[in-house]
Design goal:
mainly alpha; 74% helix; globular
Amino acid sequence: MPLLHALFLGLLQGVTEFLPVSSSGHLALAPWLFGWDDFAENPALENAFDVALHLGTLAGAVVYLRSDIARYATAVFGWLRKRDRLAGDAATGVFLLVTAVPTGLLGVGVLAVTEDLGDRIWLVAFCLILFGLLLGWADRRPTERSLSDLGMGHAVLLGVAQGLAFQPGVSRSGVTLTVARFFGLAREEAARLVFLMSLPVIAGAGLIKADDLQVPSGWRAAFLVGTLAAAVSGWLAVSGMIRLVAHRNFDSFVVYRVLLGSGVLLLLASGVR
């Protein structure tokens, strides 16, 4: 793999993982659009590279959100020791853990059936359009609740929604932001919740596939470049997204998704790609 391809895919993964535009969808579309065949029909190597990029993205997000992670983890461990009433940061920490359960179960089910959901380009494009429009619809709802008003039932629904993102084109952050906005959370609070929700899922997916992470000697530079690019761009994406949603709605992301998905469908229909 040329280092330029690795750099591009790493930056693409890191940026799109935390924007509501589907990182897996973009990673499926980019090689298809450019005609790249870097993995030469080697799914194990392609999967290993994907895991490396996700772990890089995870590292960038953890660095940015480290204070939130420490606060909620400390509160949960304190609650487990004292067995007090579940409230405050401890309740939020448990809420985040609960969201990971249905997502993990859905992920295990998907892996039992297939490891490649991005090979149907038309479906990736359709999901970009459909779930983009749903995000725009949910974002029109008024802010009526804060995170402390949500219960464990809401956590389960958010976790199920997050599990839908195993299909490229759906977007983990996009679909969970859609549900969070539908519940009435403010954009900034919803974004921070969604980013924290994604961390155990990304980490869990990386651990499950860690056995496949075998890097041939000739690929080590490409893996390193891609992983570092994903880490830096992931940090920037989380930072930028939280600042952006404090002042803007999600319309620009909706328009981008619809245009990208429509463009891909047109290319397919025309036979150009």
